[in-house]
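Convert to structure. Protein one:
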Amino acid sequence: MVTGRLGYHVTTVSLALCVGFSVTWAERGQKNPYDIQDYRDHACVRSCQEGEKPMTCRYYFLVEHYTTLSAACYDCHKNRTDCLLPQCVPGAGLQRPVLTVNRMIPGPAIHEAVGECFQVLPGSDDKLAVA
């Protein structure tokens, strides 16, 4: 247990081990939590406050085979601003197959304060992906 000092820890996940499972969110009338997210606006991205109640931070990671410099990058090799487009994975400037987490390399950051728990829920079913 850490006392007298608040700490903050950020971890970046670039690869996750997936266990196959089936989720049919649309059939349940719920929003698909595996929609591509970068988590910049996640509730756990905050300054730690002493005395604040610990949170359980939940992250849904869509792990999928993807291609660097795909059509999502438009003209990235000539126009660098296209490399910043959502779902563009420029890689090293060459088109190649990769494994991405939420279509990012490295994957999204996990934010947690000292004493908090977090859950990473991986998904890999093509039906879950939103293109």
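Protein two, convert as well:
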Amino acid sequence: MIVHSTNMVSYLFSIGYQHYLNLPGQHAAAVAGFSFLAIAVTANHLVRKRWYELFYLAHIALVMMVLIAAFIHVSQINWAAKTFPIVGACIWGADRLVRWGKWFFYGYNNECTLVALPEGATKVIMKRAIHGRPASHAFLAIPRIRPFQTHPFTLACSNPATFVIGAHNGFTKSLHHFATMHPNRTLRAGIEGPYGHVPSVERFDRVVLVGGGSGATFTVALAMDWLRRTADKEAGATHSLDFIWAIKTRGTVFPTAHA
């Protein structure tokens, strides 16, 4: 995008056609370009971690802005050029429809129970199971806590779908506060997923798992799944698992391992 825009502007100035930049289609190109830059900035790991709501809403709004501005920009060329933003909009729209369909399927007659845990963690137990392996992740929506928002979390268990969520800012902080004020409260909720590739570690004779802090939710779920799967194997088979967990305080152990 940067190469395209800088070369085009330089070329127009070199041939004395800089007035071409005042056309509505070129203004739309600038809007699309700055929207792309804003997407790149808000996709930063720091933004995603500290202000996930901003990251999520900004991306939806900016993608829509890019598609509309790109359509206006290429409309000055020919009809064939319009097919590119149209196809992009169709793919993006289809993805949204599939996600909404999953939300309806998994959210219909579904609810969750909230349990406040020590060290600012919250255990979320869904009423229904999800067809996914522990340690994969799914998007969770609880309208009572944050309407029109979805957040990705690691599955601690798939039947029933269970999450152990640490409180930070925004949704997770409000979730833990609500769970503390209303112990074992049941709320309407929905999940969408699962996503992510989970390695099949049970086929190895020895497994070494390394986790750090509350991020060990993934490795704890993987270890518990390994125990369940190896217990079903033939008697006499030799299997071993080494679990290495780096933590700052002992208080981290209970909420993370409580799944």
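The radius of gyration is 24 Å. The first helix runs from residue 2 to 14.
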